Amino acid sequence: MKVSEVAQRAGVPLSAVKYYQREGLLPAGARSAPNQVAYGEEHVRRVRLVRALLETGGLSVAATKDVIAALDAEAAPLARTFQVAQHAMGARRVQESAPSGAARARVEALAAARGWCVTSDNPGFEAAARALDGLRSIGFDPPQEYLDAYAAAAGTAAAADLQALSGRGERDAVAELMVVGTVLGDPLFAGLRRLAQQDATRDAFPAPARGGRR
Fold first, then answer.
1. Radius of gyration of the chain (CA)
2. 95-124 b/e with 16+ CB inside 10 Å = b?
3. 22-64 residue pLDDT tens
4. Which helix (H) or strand (E) holds 198?
């Protein structure tokens, strides 16, 4: 198929596909004639993946290249692909201060208490620790039961992620879902949490009825 057909099949503007090509995010097509290049279904799938990483996941082009490279490394273990995706999500989009040692230690203790087998460079440590520092800056020092509840919810979500991987079959399909699920799982979790928050606060903080009546 032509590049214009790739764009149509993937549901993205042709200009976006050409941008992906310029940035090295899309593999080259097969030259079928001096002035003709043919593309296949693998290009359509890659365009959809790149779009999900860049537009929905909010990754930078550089981070997306790292993720794509990990996916294309056939000999690389899936754990390595997952690690690359996690670090891509943890890449700082704005200048952020380093978390305090106390906050980092508390997150480490929480992970250890739950028996999580994680590496010390997992970006989740810094992200969670910065969140704790932010909460403390407004005078809220999260009690242990608060953190335990969040950790339990995270564990449930992680188990669902792995369950979804078990039905994918081929390595490429598993790796792709692992990466996209890591990147898009964050906004999915955040969106559902917002819905749950509104429901949970309905009785605790009821909104006044229209017209000023309760």
1. 22
2. eeeebeeebbebbeebbeeeeeeeeeebee
3. 999 988 888 776 677 888 888 998 898 888 888 877 778 888 8
4. helix 171-204
Q: DSSP secondary-structure letter at 107?
A: H
Alpha-carbon distances of 167 from 12, 88, 179, rounded to whole Å:
28, 25, 15
DSSP, residue by residue, 89-106 = HHS-SS--PPPPHHHHHH
**In contact, 54 and 64? CB cutoff 8 Å:** yes
Side chain identity at 177, as an amino acid letter?
Answer: L
Place of tokens 């009821």: 206
Q: What does DSSP assign to residue 31?
A: E
pLDDT, tens digit (0-9, with 9 covering 90-100), for 111-126: 999 999 999 989 899 9
Burial code (b: 16+ CB inside 10 Å, e: under 16) for 143-164 equals: eeeebeeebeebeeeeeeeeee
The torsion of the CA quartet 46, 52, 57, 60, rounded to 10 degrees, works out to 50
Integer CA distances (angstroms), 137 to 40, 81, 90, 134, in order: 53, 36, 22, 5
C-alpha span between 89 and 72 (Å, rounded): 19
Say how many Å lie between the first and final Cα of the chain, rounded.
62
Burial of 190 (0-12, 13-18, 19+ CB in 10 A): exposed
